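Standup notes
- HV: blocked on the assembly model, inputs below
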Amino acid sequence: MPFVQPLLRMPAQSENQMPQGSYDALVRPDGMVHRTLFTDPAIFDREMVRIFGGTWVFLLHETEIPLANDFKCINVGRRPVIVTRTAEGDIRALMNRCTHRGTTLCMESHGNAKRFQCAYHGWAFANTGELQTVTFAEGYGSDFDKAAHNLGRFPRVESYGGYVFGSLNPDVEPLSQWIGPAHEMIDWSRTAFTTPGARVVRSSSMVFNANWKLQNDNNGDMYHVPFTHRSVAQMTNERHGAGKALDHFRGDNSPMTVKYYGHGHKSIDQRPSIPSPWARARPVPGRETYAAALAARFEPEQTERFLNMTGRAGINLILYPNLIIAGAGSFNVYEPVAVDKTIVHSYGVVLDDAPAEVNALKSRFTEDFTGFGYRDDNEIFERIQHSLSTIPEMEWVDFSKGLGTSRESVGADGTITGAVSDETGIRGAYTYWRELMGRDVHPCVLV
Amino acid sequence: MNGAVGTPVEAAEPALYVDDARYARLWSLWNAALVSGAAAEFDSTGEISRLLYREARLLDDCHYDQWLGMFAPDCLYWVPNRADPADPRTQSGVYLDDRRRMADRVAMLRTGHLHAQMPASRTRRMLSNIECWSGDAGAIVARANLTLWEQRKGVTRAWPAFQIYEIVGDPAGGALIATKIICLLERDAPLGNYAFIL
């Protein structure tokens, strides 16, 4: 498809035009971040362009659209986007907006379609984005440029390990370079916990009244676990004994670490303290019966491998801005809705080539932390949002834990490693926020 | 009310009944209750509606021990989250609890540290359109529409749903709920922060 630069594709100018440099003052080197990052609608609008349009953003997993002509509708930032797999098998990200008068083209959440026809005046587009049919075309003059009316298309779509990312910034670095040293965790997650029959499915979605970055911060935060999740931990300990989920973090005397990889990416590495996800899992319905059924049919080593596909794998890898990979095929996607409203979509994996017992156990475990732990996280986010929105006299949020200590070290590849309860990764992510927001060039271009 | 912090909950016994046969029974209940367009077989007034109203009231009033006591030993409590749910062995929901995990939720509320229920939600469950059919093995299948009103932190919202119940005889002569399915109207939309027992 030829590169075109049609008139409909000029950069939006409606976003906040705070002068360059102002953003530097909002994220300070001493770990203080200004409250307006969470409360100012103008900053949110700029994030939707500079961050969700300026760098790579997670779109979907390849196995969600496995067949030719499969598609899935998502939002990238707030933009409605159709992600298609064309007849040739390549993946495209197309604005879900008719180029005629702006109608949303596709109302299905997912499906299989070679083309999309607008409900308003019948224009029809191929799943490549190409405008195929203009109805009653005799009403358009000879200078009507059909190619200029193709669907708005992301200039860059690339994938790594099955995770598909898109960018509206044609000059963004190659995906693998952007992921950088964080690829180690993606690789680990794949080889340890997925099989050729792994198929990603959405497990649940939730909404809370708080800024999306609070979720992004929290997934890289081990400090909160004993306090925010005290109800889960206490219930688990009282009813199911020691050694179950959340019992593995009791301060910094542990081999676990946090890391900052650059490009906003951070992680918590819990693998040293979670040798067996199954042993640490809270009992789910069917735990005893299905474990026995597997043990009756498979060798102990294979049974253990199957059971360890159920349970919390030991990584939190947060790829900026909108993806957390939690291992074992599960990940969450953050979808910003407004400065004070966020949707989080949770995904799990169904293993078509594993015994049915494994999928039944995984299905029940998928309901575990989403039902128990996320409740308290969301409550905390909403409390933070309320305080930051209502107390202008207190301007700063403190992410300094770990600074001024000797707990951080920088590796040969630039990765910063900190003590597990430190805010090292979160601070790193805000330096990337500052970099993206402060650029004086509008990044977004459609093809 | 007996939802006070520290009140003990029944012990977490292994739920040895959650196997393929029990899942198949749940799945067949769902399909039978949904697919049939048949008129109700018998009037719901009397014993069945008293049972359903009581279960709703015990949840609203936080009488969780008595609430658990209304369920059969091999009970399942399913809240699907798909537009058209499939066999729950193959997909997750909001939750599908056995008796042990139902009691886990009660225990969480009673730790006194469930921030999402501090302050606690006040709820009222309005049941209507109760219809009954004969189920397998002497069970009774009931359907009802639900409007669950929740008030928390000054905001009142509704959780509309329909519910499916499988009711079985109790050796003592009464009736127990073997299965309850809560099918929220917004089941496939992003859910708000439910932390009370749906």
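- HV (later): unblocked. Residues 20-34+54-184 of chain B form a domain with the Nuclear Transport Factor 2; Chain: A, fold (CATH 3.10.450.50). Chain B is about 25% helix and 30% strand.
- Next: hand off to the docking folks.
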